[in-house]
Amino acid sequence: MPSLAANAATRVAPALALIAQERRRILEELGQLVAIPSISTRPESAGDVRACAEWLAAHLAAMGMTHTQVIATGGHPIVISEWRDSEPKPALLIYGHYDVQPPEPLEPWLSPPFVATVRENRVYGRGTTDDKGQLFIHLKAMEACLRASASLPVHVRLVLEGEEEIGSPSLAAFLQGKKEWLRSDLAVISDTPFFAAGIPSICYGLRGTVYMEVEVTGPATDLHSGSHGGAVHNPIQALAEMIAQLHDARGRVAIPGFYDGVRPLSQKERNGFRALPWSDRKYAQELGVPRLHGEAGFTTLERLWARPTLECHGIGGGYTEAGSKTIIPARAAAKISMRIVPGQRPERIAQLFAKHVRRIAPSAVRVSVQCLHASAAALTPLESPGMEAAVAAMSAGFGRRPVMQREGGSIPVATHLKSLLGMDTVLLGFGLPDENAHAPNEFLDLGNFFGGMATAIHFYHELANTLHAKGD
Amino acid sequence: MPSLAANAATRVAPALALIAQERRRILEELGQLVAIPSISTRPESAGDVRACAEWLAAHLAAMGMTHTQVIATGGHPIVISEWRDSEPKPALLIYGHYDVQPPEPLEPWLSPPFVATVRENRVYGRGTTDDKGQLFIHLKAMEACLRASASLPVHVRLVLEGEEEIGSPSLAAFLQGKKEWLRSDLAVISDTPFFAAGIPSICYGLRGTVYMEVEVTGPATDLHSGSHGGAVHNPIQALAEMIAQLHDARGRVAIPGFYDGVRPLSQKERNGFRALPWSDRKYAQELGVPRLHGEAGFTTLERLWARPTLECHGIGGGYTEAGSKTIIPARAAAKISMRIVPGQRPERIAQLFAKHVRRIAPSAVRVSVQCLHASAAALTPLESPGMEAAVAAMSAGFGRRPVMQREGGSIPVATHLKSLLGMDTVLLGFGLPDENAHAPNEFLDLGNFFGGMATAIHFYHELANTLHAKGD
What we know:
The structure is a homodimer.
Chain A: H1 2-21, H2 23-34, H3 46-63, E1 66-71, E2 78-83, E3 91-97, E4 117-119, E5 122-124, H4 132-149, E6 155-161, H5 171-177, H6 179-182, E7 186-189, E8 201-206, E9 208-217, E10 223-224, H7 225-228, H8 235-244, H9 267-275, H10 280-287, H11 300-306, E11 309-318, E12 327-328, E13 331-340, H12 346-360, E14 366-375, E15 378-379, H13 385-398, E16 403-407, H14 412-421, E17 425-427, E18 443-445, H15 446-466
Parallel strand pairs in A: 3-6, 3-7, 7-17, 8-16
Antiparallel strand pairs in A: 1-2, 2-6, 4-5, 5-18, 8-15, 9-13, 9-14, 10-12, 11-13
Helix pairs in contact in A: 1-4, 1-15, 2-4, 4-15, 5-14, 13-15
């Protein structure tokens, strides 16, 4: 590997130099992007979201990207762009999102949310880490390569979405419609944080989600609990008793067959997780809980990243305003999802859940179960060419070999790319865990911002080495 | 008793005759009362509520009642009035409420809600049974006595409330402030239904209420259930597990000490309940439940009227709108009350509940328990003079000896009168169970309306016999 690294260093040096020389310009441009309040959840901001898409399209065109388009959807537009030449090169799909969360509450912001402001080697502003700053890392990395050598080492397709913060309602249809154009050797997304400051990380596994809704119906209408209390089963009580039967005393999910096929963690992975700097006590403090809780026999990181779980997201029934009202409610309902891991099939898990709930349903109420959505877990093989390129690039960009981590959440676009196009995704994120994404005083560490550009430049070049060209 | 009954019949005959002759006028006057939309829950109806109070005050004054006042409260006014003479007579407190529920939904009404309309020997309109029609029974019974003999056989204090449908927020302070004026030998309330059509009933027992709120707090803020699911206890799950531990497998309340002191039902009472016409199947059908449910070892009426119960009235936590959101909520809460019976002290029950909940609270969350209000059960002794007068009056008014029933609910004014003034209350109700109180097409059976007046006239006279005069 040393010779390869040296070789790569020579090839990337001009582009890296350009970045180093133009930091001020790059930050000014990021400021222009941050200044557009592309708040996707607010109908009155639709014009700003569109303006942001158009600013990006113009910027991409000026960089030398081709086929740049602002594509209308049922919601906010998607910006696509590409770069290719006639040489056989591997194809890389880069995904990012240019929409942001609302800035509220405004009072805690130390500088205006839509004015990118540098303080203490950080750039503050809404979207700096999530995800304008991180997508801009790729734009500037590609720009530097194009300026340095009028070429990129890979063919690139770029997809910049404007609805990520509202659940990507238009994305699946877009991906479905653009399948042929999108198909690449690998996808990369820069929208995740380092494991901790100073510890670059690559996420290689995501859990899937199976989202269920359970409704319990009792009497035809709310009943007076004085007149009728003692005669009928209470839907809230029935639902509570059912929820209580979804876990056993050891914190395991008590649905028969739930763990069938769950791929065990390898000793190598467990060792890798254990080598990470981690304190249960500190984590509990940060979350504000008296103590952590979960499946017995696994560490916290194992439970979060590699074990399936079941959580209640919402419950409602009867009277919940201030004061007292004495009813037996006609119904109660809960939203419950399971995070699933490799080896669990989402459809099967949904079936097992429904079957278990129907079996434990008390006969004095009616119970209905519905699956709202289900997606599989995703693991990008550690020994794959894309992952090897990412490790080498991150090592070169930050001078430290990244830790390999998994993530408990699901990233719908990664799931879609796998299920629709069979593509693996590398999550090459440059955020930090405490950068206030979705909160006031969001920021991006400038070391990670520029280190991210260096990493991206290395990554494109490494990919050209590790991935076999498809000659598309 | 036969000689007494014959004697009473002679004394009441002139008043009964007046009622029989003036049915049309009485119905017209009820129509005027029903026409005033005294909807207490609607701020914009405050003027109508006051107009209704003033209509009643004018009516009472015209009837020959004295000291009639419309008393301002923090909310809607209370109308008071009295009749007394210089003779030593027992004192009777009559309570009623002149406020009504909103008429909505309007579409199902076959005649306008605020136009009293006679169809098939029923008078339809909002408030006809709850409670304008029933309080009017007493007004017209007193009026007939006063016209027939320029006198009443008892001293009367009348309290007509305008906030019963919104939980009587001003009542306790009013009762406290008027203690001396209110103190009487007995209270009567006509605001309950017969056991069934054609089966006159007297309610001699009410359950008390102990109303609690339980809040479970987990993480400081809602957490992403992908990133954190598996590490912390979920407040909804913790609350559900606690609710599931409030009953045992036989449907008994599982709080240690809860049943201590519960006065057992006498065999006589059980036999009385069993003699009532009752069908579990029909009741389940009416309520729309697959089957009834409750404490093993007791009949439905025993469970409803004489056994303590625990019900959940509301539960809330996390995301309950349409669609899916993946959070571990920061908190979940439930409103839970217990109906208690004679022998259970409300404060003690609140303590036992709180102690049990704290004991079963999982250590990975924080749990708080609060008592919102607590009131004792009330039993009016079956062998008391007031009850004997009520039985005789009902027998005379409807030609059938009433059944003695209890009621699962609580009537706060009855509880207040007992706890503040030590007074027993007789619940001498003339409604029917299916008269659509609180619903469209509310009505009052005219047989019960005029039979109620006859009963009330008999009742006042019987009381003069059975109760020892206090000479106030």
